[in-house]
Design goal:
Blueprint lengths: L11 H12 L9 E4 L7 H4 L9 E5 L9 H14 L10 H21 L4 H8 L4 E3 L4 E3 L16 E4 L7 E2 L2
Parallel strand pairs: 1-2
Antiparallel strand pairs: 2-5, 3-4, 5-6
Helix pairs in contact: 4-5
Length: about 170
């Protein structure tokens, strides 16, 4: 009998292959799949050929437009829908990547302005000295320091689950 231990996956190509293979097993042999948010990019859901609904797939991630936590995140949704021509949140590809890129772009812009330079060392030092920033993912207090270069900290992680949606929905 297979173990109920979750199985890890890599990115969208490998993740989609694993989902298809797992979905094609007899139901009693299917294992739960636990993945990082990286699989949610691109056309992951479509790459599973509709078989995503037949597996237990949970994703560790830092953000979801299904559960925006602030006004900045909420106001970004219609802009993304217009730009991508998606008809709803289900059509937004890689919401985690969009949110992380949005916040990081703003953090870099703040650091470059603070450094008054595009010099790598000056920007790194400025990033390490940003006091606060209200982003899409969260309100950052000292997002970076000399010892911490990972702004979305563990307090932002949660599980989301795929069904037949193109973007995983947070588990409550």
């Amino acid at each position: 009998m297979p173990s109920a231990e979750p199985q890890g996956v890599a990115n969208e190509n490998e993740g989609a292959l694993l989902v298809r293979e797992m979905a094609n097993l007899p139901k009693e042999k299917r294992l739960p799949i636990l993945a990082h948010w990286g699989i949610t990019g691109g056309n992951f859901a479509e790459m599973t050929n509709g078989l995503i609904a037949n597996v237990d797939l949970s994703v560790v991630q830092t953000f979801s437009f299904y559960n925006p936590i602030n006004d900045k995140a909420t106001s970004l949704i219609p802009r993304i829908l217009e730009e991508t021509r998606a008809t709803g949140i289900d059509g937004i590809k890689s919401s985690v990547g969009i949110a992380q890129a949005y916040d990081l772009t703003w953090l870099f812009a703040i650091a470059m302005a603070k450094a008054d330079s595009t010099d790598r060392s000056s920007i790194r030092n400025a990033l390490e000295n940003i006091d606060a920033f209200d982003g899409v993912i969260k309100s950052y207090s000292r997002p970076f320091s000399k010892d911490n270069h990972n702004a979305p900290l563990a307090d932002q992680l949660f599980f989301a689950q795929y069904s037949d949606a193109k973007d995983p929905k947070p588990l409550h």
